[in-house]
Specification:
It holds the Pfam family PALP. Its cofactor is pyridoxal 5'-phosphate. The chain is α/β, with parallel strands linked by helices. It contains 16 helices and 14 strands. α5 packs parallel to α7, α10 crosses α11 and α14 crosses α15. Bound molecules: pyridoxal-5'-phosphate. The site of pyridoxal-5'-phosphate (PLP) has 19 residues, from α11 and α15. Pyridoxal-5'-phosphate binds next to α11 and α15.
């Protein structure tokens, strides 16, 4: 495999990535770009990151052999249980890492954007832990839809600011957060929740989440005496749990990498978030990538039953993994995800997040063979989705 899956000096993965930002933000981004690798490699960062991941977040997360699901699919299915982390998803790996980075850089005020609220909760959590001021931007529509997570953020001491422009969802919250950062460049750290945004964020977040694939390697070796699985399967919103699950396997072409993106009500329904299947190259959130846009370049409103996958773009690493064919991205509809969530629940007693259910549903599209080892990342738990499950699975 000749291609590199690491970004170049300017943050490009092939034609994707970079930093397309207003002039005013350049000093901030440069400061971060010049310091992140040095800080992340320092003895003190590594020690603090490891301790908090273990003792606070509860890592390593188990790699669980799913016996009854394996029987169903005729291969060996291993679940990487990110749902068992503190705050209920993989998001906390990244927020712990970035809060330590912010601390090292002397920043006292943390801003973040959130859609469903999972990243907002993980950010508010680590700000409480470190005693830092926390402001979370959230679209007005999402504030109404995700009331329990808004309450959690407030209890944790964060201020939730409502974005009232555009469709009042994630991309509007992002615009507000960027505006805040421009106005407060000196004391503020912008804590981004996925492998998106201007360089160095996509690389920085991928490295924070790479703890997932690092653990998969030694856990699988302990259980099977092979460290590399045949498949790694993960859902893709912006792409952080997938990037973290793929990371240590990207340079080994024998490991098939599968991303599951949200088709919503179907690729041709107009209600979808399948940015790889339907997207074209363009700039969103400060980087060049695949995104869903109209003929005149307006970003299309995304739709998915799962709020965490409801994003019109994808991180530039994934645009590149797709472009080179190194990873394959499959589209999964709302209904397929619901069916897969119920199957996991009934076969293994694990209620997954709706996002993670997309990864499970992608198994139906693979030609799995007896003896193959398939790792599926369960990015989060289903508690936050119970209302949707109750309504859509006719459980009441
Ligand atoms: C946020 C979220 C996602 C989607 O984000 P990625 O950056 O693509 O990982 C997936 N699953 C859960 C549980 C989430 O909270």
């Amino acid at each position: 495999m000749s291609e590199s899956f690491q970004p170049d000096e300017k943050g490009f993965y092939g034609p994707y990535g970079g930093a397309y930002i207003p002039e005013m933000l350049i000093p901030n981004i440069e400061n971060l770009r010049e310091n992140y690798i040095r800080i992340m490699n320092s003895e003190s960062f590594r020690k603090n990151f490891k301790t908090l991941l273990e003792d606070y977040a509860g890592r390593p997360s188990p790699l669980y052999y799913a016996t009854r699901l394996s029987e169903q699919y005729g291969c060996n299915i291993w679940l990487k249980r990110e749902d068992l982390n503190h705050t209920g998803s993989h998001k906390v790996n990244n927020t712990i890492g970035q809060i330590l980075l912010a601390h090292e850089m002397g920043k006292k005020r943390i801003i973040a954007e959130t859609g469903a609220g999972q990243h907002g909760v993980a950010t508010a959590t680590v700000c409480a832990l470190m005693g830092l001021e926390c402001i979370v931007y959230m679209g007005e529509t999402d504030i109404e839809r995700q009331a329990p997570n808004v309450a959690r953020m407030k209890m944790l001491g964060a201020e939730v600011r409502s974005a009232v422009s555009g469709s009042r969802t994630l991309k509007d919250a992002t615009n507000e957060a960027l505006r805040d950062w421009i106005a407060n460049p000196l004391d503020t750290f912008y804590l981004i929740g996925s492998v998106v945004g201007p360089h160095p964020y996509p690389d920085l977040v991928a490295k924070m989440q790479s703890v997932i694939s690092g653990e998969i390697q030694w856990q699988l070796r302990n259980k099977t005496d092979k460290s590399d699985p045949d498949y790694v399967v993960a859902c893709v919103g912006g792409g952080s749990n997938a990037a973290g699950s793929f990371y240590h396997f990207m340079d080994n072409p024998d490991v098939k990498l599968i991303g599951a993106e949200a088709a919503g009500e179907g690729l041709s329904s107009g209600k979808t978030a399948a940015s790889i299947a339907l997207g074209e190259t363009g700039v969103i959130h400060g980087s060049m990538t695949n995104l869903m846009q109209t003929n005149d370049g307006q970003i299309t409103e995304p739709y998915s039953i799962s709020a965490g996958l409801d994003y019109p773009g994808i991180g530039p690493l994934h645009a590149w993994l797709n472009h080179t064919g190194r990873a394959k991205y499959l589209s999964v509809t709302d209904q397929e995800a619901l069916d897969a969530a119920l199957l996991l629940t009934r076969k293994e007693g694990i209620i997954p997040a709706l996002e993670s259910a997309h990864a499970l549903a992608a198994l139906n599209q693979l030609d799995l063979k007896s003896g193959e080892n398939v790792v599926v990342t369960i990015s989060g738990r289903g508690d936050k989705d119970m209302k949707t499950y109750m309504d859509r699975l006719q459980l009441v």
